[in-house]
UniProtKB/TrEMBL annotation:
GO cellular component term of the entry, any: cytosol
Record's protein name: peptidyl-tRNA hydrolase
Spans traversing the lipid bilayer: none
InterPro entries xref list: Pep_tRNA_hydro_II_dom_sf, PTH2
Protein family per UniProt: Belongs to the PTH2 family.
PANTHER family: PEPTIDYL-TRNA HYDROLASE 2, PEPTIDYL-TRNA HYDROLASE 2, MITOCHONDRIAL
Catalysed reaction equations from the record: an N-acyl-L-alpha-aminoacyl-tRNA + H2O = an N-acyl-L-amino acid + a tRNA + H(+)
One Gene Ontology molecular-function label: peptidyl-tRNA hydrolase activity
Keywords, comma-separated and alphabetical: Hydrolase
EC number: 3.1.1.29
Taxonomic source organism: Hemiselmis andersenii (Cryptophyte alga)
Length: 193
């Protein structure tokens, strides 16, 4: 900015009344104007940069760190990506919208449970890019067999119980239907499930 230029003159005129309202002496307002005009956008840009812009490549140490380390999964550190598996029952005849709703319940339910007890698992899942995989179970017995197998491998599980008869036909409300299973773990362990 140059004093006396057209841009500078227009800026001075546009903020003159505001500056006078603050009772700032006329001889002090050009530096004050510069501070106001430059400080706010610079701080905004700096904040945006810090929050949203990658600051460079990961260091070798960050690349080498395991994506999951914890006492689950038999206490062994695993260098694999962590993935969530959602298993839906086919025999309930759920609409695609209902399946999507149940998948949301299953993933959020498992996430909340794990985040409260062991945030390392959820952080590893986030670091892996929130990977998910969908599977199918023919009926409730098969769904429970998947859960038993996952628990046997040390994987945390979550079962969704649905009680809505309007969409899921032919099943009672009393006990709730086990409509979806979710479990999470490293891909190498999931291959065993």
């Amino acid at each position: 900015f140059m004093a006396g230029g057209t841009f500078w003159d227009s800026m001075v005129k546009s903020v003159k009344h505001w500056i006078m309202a603050l009772s700032i002496p006329v001889e002090a307002w050009p530096p004050f104007l510069i501070i106001i005009l430059l400080w706010s956008p610079c701080m905004y840009a700096l904040g945006w940069y810090v929050c949203f812009v990658e600051t460079g490549d990961d260091t070798e140490a960050e690349k080498a760190k395991p994506t999951f380390v914890g006492k689950n999964y038999r206490g062994n550190p695993v260098n694999d990506p962590v993935k969530m598996v959602l298993v839906v029952r086919e025999d309930l005849g759920m609409t695609p919208g209902k399946v999507a709703t149940q998948a949301g319940h299953a993933s959020v339910g498992l996430f909340r449970r794990l985040h409260e007890k062991n945030a390392g698992i959820t952080q590893a899942w986030q670091d892996s890019g929130w990977l998910k995989m969908i599977g199918q179970a023919a009926n409730e017995e098969e769904l429970l067999a998947y859960q038993k197998k996952a628990k046997g491998l040390g994987l945390p599980t979550y079962i969704v119980r649905d009680a809505a008869l309007k969409v899921v036909d032919g099943y009672g409300v009393e006990n709730g239907n086990r409509s979806m299973l979710s479990f999470i773990g490293p891909t190498s362990v999931l291959q065993e499930a």
